[in-house]
Amino acid sequence: MSDDVSVTESTENDVHEVALLANPAAHAGRATRHLERALSLLRERDIAVELLVADSAEESTRAVERSSAGRVLVMGGDGTVHLAASLLADTRRVLGILPSGTGDDAARALGLLNGNLEENVDMALSEPLAINLISGAERPVVTSLIAGFPTAVNSRANTMSFPRGTSRYTIATLLEIPRMVPSNYRLTLDGEATDLTAAVIVVANTAWFGGGMEICPEADPTDGLMDICVVGDVSRIELLQSFRLVDTGAHVHHPKVSMFRAAEVSLELLDAGPTADLRADGELLGCLSAREPVVVRADRTSLLVAGASTRPRREG
Questions:
Q1: Can you give the residue ranges of every domain in the chain?
Q2: What CATH topology corresponds to 144-300?
Q3: CA-to-CA separations, 18 to 38, 45, 48, 68, 282, in angstroms, rounded
Q4: Which tens digits make up the pLDDT trace of 212-246?
């Protein structure tokens, strides 16, 4: 159970029916390896299961929209959580997470990554906690919105079938560093604008991104604010040297790293020419172009996440 007090009266461990969305593509096709075991565990608990198996985001969206289940369990990674959040946000429907992806940063941030499958199932059936989302982009964001160098790393990692697990992000980072070039942005925090050159900008709702890197250690998805990490005009060598600092959050003390907190963030690319990708929860979420800012805010409307805690334990 969560250490936090739930803000909803919707459950008292009286769940009788769920929908289970399984993403066959998550974790390079290995996410559904334990699907039959998950179904068995749910049925042992006298839970009726509506199985939703979809091979694409469009099929997943239609399946969740058609389902009348008040609680939707997702077996997948951050991308599957991202999709479900866009459909369940600001409703009384509850999201349960059975973490089965490569990065699983949403599950990590919400204290849901520890434990075996049986424990994960029990957490997904427990009382929900209401968390904030980042709104204003094309879809709501659960973990973080990223611009700059990490978008290239995330994109490359998503195309790799080897190595397995979070080390994929390490390899992708090393492969992309030779191409890294900082860009010029206008960052406006709660109405105060600053022009800057940055290699990385992360607007975070939760602490982790990139498969366990603690980019914004103080981020809390229930405080109504976003944490912003800006890695300034660093060289490729500087970025490589400080790469491991992000694993523990020690990068926040680097002289070229700035940390902010705001309820509303506007981000504008000042460089003329090609657009720059924006990614969120491991998924492409549009782009930045010159003179067309993206404005996002910490949305007090909530997503109900079963068993979530804002004081997660590190996985051992």
A1: 17-132+301-306, 144-300
A2: Tumour Suppressor Smad4 (2.60.200)
A3: 12, 12, 6, 9, 26
A4: 899 999 999 999 999 999 999 999 999 988 888 99
Signed CA dihedral, 265, 270, 271, 273: sign only = positive
pLDDT at 118: 96
pTM of the model: 0.88
Q: Is the predicted pLDDT of residue 12 greater than 50, yes or no?
A: no
- Give me the residue label for tokens 């600001």: 90
For tokens 């199985």, name the residue: 51
Average pLDDT value for residue range 204-208: 97
Candidate CATH numbers 3.40.250.10, 3.40.50.920, 3.30.2000.10, 3.40.50.10330; the one for domain 17-132+301-306 = 3.40.50.10330
